[in-house]
Amino acid sequence: MDIKMKWFYRLAFLLLLFVVLWIFFKLEPYWKPILQVFFTACLPFGVAAFIAYLLNPLVQLLHKNGLEKWLSVLIIYILFFTGVGYLLYKGVPVFVQQLRGLSASLPDLVKQYDEWALDIEKRTRSWPLGIHEQIDNMFAVINVGLESIAERILNIIFWIIEKFFLLLLIPFIAFYMIKDMEDIKRFFWYWVPRRKREETRIVVESITDSLGNYLRGQFIVCCLIGAASAFFFWLIRLKFPLLLGFIVGATNVIPYFGPFIGAIPAVLIALTMSGKMAIFVAAIIFILQFLEGNILSPLIVGKSLRMHPLAIIFSILIGGEVAGVLGLILAVPIAAVIKTIVLESKIFFEKKGDKETEPAS
To answer: What is the pTM of this model?
Structure first.
């Protein structure tokens, strides 16, 4: 087959792919409800799989030191869920109380920002008209942002209450996933063709090593940053310390951009109290991010992904455009998986090409 025919087939394949995608998106009203039901059913399994992925190394460590597998699972399982349950028991009432306080004080916050806007407009009356418009737009964005943050957090709380019985299944699913991890692996490998198992095993192990360490490390770092932020916010008597600390910790999962996103609500709330409080809050977040970037992340996460910062930023931008906040969170892990698959596939095909070109002895 000549080069022109190869290019013809490639273009025909791309054209067919675009047509299929176009038809797929046109049929969205039909497949979207089915997909939503599927994702709702898969949600507890996904969360349980993450917990099992998080705890499995600890289980294996106890098992290697002489404990029975079921006993290792039981000890780690009880310690983890007892700790999580205690934190939820103590933290959720305070969290909900602060959330209600934020919602109740939101009109006052918006009114205060409006007063600031009028005051700034009076002080800058002699400035060009374009600057006034930019200042008005800035305060309008702040107002919308505050309302959006409170609304989204309330939606999350209501969603958790709505799906409470579904989420109750997570501990049971996680227990069986941890206990029967080897059986699950055997079931997976059973469906992989024998001739593809070796290269698939290499890819899966590479993904597990890099992505597993990254996810576990990020989870620990985010919990530490969130807890430290909440503690220091409480120490300086900032309003809603637990809620704001939670936001700082949760957004910290987004590399590079997360600290700035998490700092915005805390600084805005601090500004309603005093300029000095805003400086304290900004200093706390800056110091914590400095410690996270120079001590915690290198020590706990390390360089498990081995991705260039530009590649990470690029993947975050694409993830944000495609799926919003969820895309920002999942962009780096997905990019790491794609990178691993591409690199391992390249190595495999290069080895295969070398074997085919070797002269017969």
So the answer is: 0.71
